[in-house]
Amino acid sequence: MTRTLALITGASSGIGAAYARLLADDHDLVLVARRADRLADHAKELRAHGAAVDVLPADLMTHDGIAAVTDRLAAGDVRMLISNAGAGGYAPLAEVKSADIDGLLTLNAVAPVRLVHAALPAMLAAGEGTIVTVASLLAFSAGSTDPRAPRRTLYVAAKAATVGFTRTLAGELADTPVRVQVVCPGVVATDWNSGAGHIIPWAMSPEDVASASLAGLRLGETVCAPGLEDLDSALDALLAAETAFVAGGNQPTLASRYTEPRA
Ligand SMILES: NC(=O)c1ccc[n+]([C@@H]2O[C@H](COP(=O)([O-])OP(=O)(O)OC[C@H]3O[C@@H](n4cnc5c(N)ncnc54)[C@H](OP(=O)(O)O)[C@@H]3O)[C@@H](O)[C@H]2O)c1
Questions:
Q1: Binding site membership of 206 for ligand 1 (Cβ less than 6 Å)
Q2: Is the pLDDT at 86 greater than 50, yes or no?
Q3: pLDDT tens digit string along 131-172?
Q4: What is the DSSP string of the chain?
């Protein structure tokens, strides 16, 4: 059996670890995260499934950490990239330190783009490749004023960028054999939500998220929303709203409300 090489970021826990477990039967793996001990334990378990597993400890909030991963991708043998590492950093923007702004945007938005950019040339040359980036349903929550939602300005900025990036890239790569997908989970039962001992009863399992993403790839989905029943209608409505904004607003003259005399 030929094994494809997959590189997974955020593989030390949660959704990334679930992808690794699902892929280990027929993929070799490179596991990326900061916690080297957890990666090593996880690698041992995955090798029992026959996978060759390398661990690559790296902090993707830093440009050195990103460079360690892009250097690995430059070797040209990775055919599946799962860019999953992320952090919420939920807080009102005025309370976030400047350094944390850079770190969170680097981890959640810059790193996925840099990794895709590093992986893509070899995938195109090989005529084969799959790129998955894990975003969030919160990417679509900018206009929501639901008081139960977290203080999420930076997180939404980063995840919405990831969704826009992947959807646009899908068009750019439409005539190539490289497939791209952005995954938009709702609440998932991982360390993310349970770290403080706070279990959310309606959360989806990380295994279901990873398995929906892999099934979505087989279905040709560019956007995977694991819990959304009628994905096609939601995407059609989204595209219709985007088209109304772009086609309706791209005019040589001002909209009438800007030219009416002041009362
Ligand atoms: N859980 C949810 O409710 C939920 C919902 C929607 C989307 N998501 C997205 O799902 C993805 C995975 O999250 P999860 O729920 O599986 O949470 P998790 O269990 O906390 O996993 C996060 C992963 O990202 C890694 N990571 C965090 N900061 C990193 C850094 N600076 N450099 C490298 N790796 C880093 C962590 O590893 P180390 O700590 O070892 O570095 C860990 O492996 C994230 O992108 C998140 O935005 C989660």
A1: yes
A2: yes
A3: 999 999 999 999 999 998 899 999 999 999 999 999 999 999
A4: -PPEEEEEESTTSHHHHHHHHHHTTTEEEEEEES-HHHHHHHHHHHHTTT--EEEEE--TTSHHHHHHHHHHHTTS---EEEE-------S-GGGS-HHHHHHHHIIIIIHHHHHHHHHHHHHHHHT-EEEEEE--GGGG-TT---TTS---HHHHHHHHHHHHHHHHHHHHTTTSSEEEEEE---SB-SHHHHTTS---TTPBPHHHHHHHHHHHHHHT-SEE-TT-S-HHHHHHHHHHHHHHHHHHH--SS--GGGTSPP-
Query: Which atom of ligand 1 lies nearest, measured to the CA of 12?
Result: 43
Residue 260 lies in a domain: no
pLDDT tens profile 64-85: 999 999 999 999 999 999 999 9
Q: What is the atom index within ligand 1 of the atom nearest the CA of 108? A: 45
User: Within a domain: residue 139?
Assistant: yes
Determine which of 18-27, 196-205, 247-256 has the lowest per-residue pLDDT on average.
196-205
- How confident is the model over 42-55, as pLDDT tens digits? 999 999 999 999 99
Domain CATH number, residue 35: 3.40.50.720
* Global pTM value: 0.97
What is the number of structural domains in the chain?
A: 1
1 alpha carbon – ligand 1 mean position (Å): 31
Task: Clarify whether 155 is annotated catalytic.
Answer: yes
- Using the predicted structure, report yes or no on whether residue 195 has a pLDDT greater than 60: no
In a domain, 254, yes or no: no
- Distance between Cα 263 and ligand 1 center (Å): 52
Would 237 be classed as within a structural domain?
no
Domain span holding position 197: 4-232
